[in-house]
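user: At home tonight, take the chain set out below, taking as long as you need, and be ready to discuss the fold:
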Amino acid sequence: MTLSGQTRVAAVLGWPISHSLSPSMHNYWLKENGIDGVYIPLAINPNKIANFIKLLPHIGFAGVNLTVPHKETAMMFVDDVDSLAKRVGAINTIVITKDGSLEGRNTDVFGFKEALNQNTGTDIIKDGIAVVIGAGGASRAIVVALLELGAREIRIINRTLEKAELLAASWGPTLKPVLWQERNEALSGASFLVNTTSLGMKNQPHLDLSLDALPKTAVVNDIVYRPLLTPLLCAAKNRGNLVVDGLWMLLQQGRPGFAAWFGCDPVVSPKLRDYVLKMA
């Protein structure tokens, strides 16, 4: 990484932000590719996010990533939102264009698909039954990805049924809301299971879910990456299911933003993954 008067600056905005591994990932890529740039974490209070985003073109930023709790609200403060981000209802990337306008994009759909491609392939999704735990912001991008990959049925399990119903209403009959108390039985016949909640994350409660009804041919994914092997993934692995941890999605979703800001499509390599894990 080289810093000069021409250094291109990008950042990740969140509240809090100290947990983010994005700076380790992007700064690794900058050094690997010999780019004069830097990527920094910034803790931005939700009450200040609108003003900060509007400042970006005036303080030399190439762009930013957005994480909790800014992904949905930030859509209101950019000049343009791409069609995929509109469909998801959230942006996680802002690109500052040459004329200074703010472009909102969503790279989580791309990151989810590429994480599967790199580990198990996406054939498990096509014409199959997918089960999604959670109906929050993260689940929306994953539902869009599952629809694009051709899932025949997507069961949405959430502790609050109304949120699952609201999510299902956005995309029609392919999505089936499931009562929380019926979550274990809802795994029957599924080819894919993904947890999009914070349950299982370090210092959070475990996801209370029995995998007894889940076929052993199913792939199990957890978007949580701290710990890398969550209790859900450990239980799945122990019974013989293939698992995909959340770090793969994090690394892959970073690629499009990096390419837009720094003009280079980076590689998600074993060396990158090892480096980011060491920094965790």
User: Anything to note?
Assistant: The two ends are 20 Å apart (CA to CA). The chain has a mean pLDDT of 95. DSSP finds nine helices and twelve strands in the chain. The CA atoms of residues 11 and 82 lie 20 Å apart.
